[in-house]
Amino acid sequence: MDSLITAAGRALALGDPLGALNRVALRDDPPALALRGIAMAQLGDLPRARVLLRGAMRGFGPQEAVARARCAVAEAEIALAARDLGFSAATLDQARGVLEARGDRLNAAHARYLEIRRLLLVGRLDKAEGALAQLDPTPFPPALRAAHELVVAGIALRRVRAQPARAALARAGRAARQAGIPALMAEVDAAARALTLPAARLLTQGTQRLLTLEEVEALRASTMLVVDACRLTVHAGGTLIPLTRRPVLFTLARALAEAWPADVSRRALVARAFRAKDADESHRARLRVEIGRLRALLRPLAQVQATRQGFALQPLEAADVAVLTLPEEDALATVLALLADGEPWSSSALAMALGASQRTVQRALETLAAAGKAQAFGQGRARRWTTPPLPGFTTTLLLPTFLPGD
């Protein structure tokens, strides 16, 4: 490998894409194309970066398996940055296998981190943790150690564990400063700022206040009976009852919790849970059935008592009842939460992350665009959606996850 290629590679490792391009911008040999592609990716021109990397892969011969595998890993990283979550996991795994077999353990570890980050984006926390447990960051260079700690912090944030997230981000900050890469330091700083922003809103007996993630964690460990509209659960004293697959039951539980200690009329419950303006006998019968199901599920934590007008929630041990909601509630809040990371998302990637149909996501995006909350660029399959982050709020609790396990 000639000196210009070596120098360009070192510049890229230090986060200096312009320095790398100064050395290889006019060259079209495969190593130069690969380095140019990585430089363009660091500069944000992801489509051009993909073209250059694919050209480099075609230029490398069959005997240059390691170089081809490195290009495949770089292209997977670009796909992740472009929120193209449909990139071939099999191709990435194959490239990782080649790198491990040829002794390139650093790039092999980088490939594994890419897969873990993809799992984290789509809320597969258990799988992400399992894959992360197979990696020991101790022998890695600072940049890769920072990437490891960012993943650890991301999982902790999704699990609503503020202290482990804070500790991981502190380690990531030290590693990023040691690496001396400005973009990496900025990424760590942005993640750390999320811990200081409001993550949820607490409603209790007609009052409301914003909570940080650390306060949300303390609330989850308290004895207060909380109906969590962020995660669609009911919890108190360490006992958690998921209602993610029971939206009607959750709506009833939230209505009863918001009214506590008062009751809620049957007419109001029918209107809220079934969206019916006038309650007839069929609605009242359905309400009795759903209230019976809710009683059975909440039995470890509370009773649902019938009153003269309707129903009331009565906690068994908790002294107070509250509702935990998003900082800003919006019918399309989950889509906004993903867009708020500042990265360009395709509608297919959003659908994959949210577990919804692509057409449903496209309608949501069109609604957000009409309201000025989202914007698109590109045409056809290259179309991407983005929006500036919501000022003053963190979106950690809005991001997709599968509870209690995935």
Automatic annotation (TrEMBL):
<protein>
    <recommendedName>
        <fullName>HTH domain-containing protein</fullName>
    </recommendedName>
</protein>
<dbReference type="InterPro" id="IPR036388">
    <property type="entry name" value="WH-like_DNA-bd_sf"/>
</dbReference>
<dbReference type="InterPro" id="IPR036390">
    <property type="entry name" value="WH_DNA-bd_sf"/>
</dbReference>
